[in-house]
Design brief:
The structure is a single chain. With about 70 residues, this protein is an all-alpha fold. The protein contains two helices and no strands. It has one domain (about 5-65). It starts with a helix and ends with a helix. About 0% of the residues are buried. Keywords: Signal. InterPro entries: Peripla_BP_I (IPR028082). It comes from Citrobacter freundii.
Length: about 70
Amino acid sequence: MTKLHKAFLAVAVTAVITTMTGFIPAASAAPQESKKITHIGLMVQDMSNPFFSAMERNAKQAAAKIGAT
């Protein structure tokens, strides 16, 4: 199984568990419309993997569109 398949499997398992447990985020955890997002954190497994490199590049582009870093 490749790293990419493992990553997709991990995301799928997390989504299934979240759905099965009925997870509902707390209202206090939701971003308030009056507050501006200034920083976004992103952790990736391996920057030498083209998938994660593309993820980082696109996350930076999306953050720049909303004025975050």
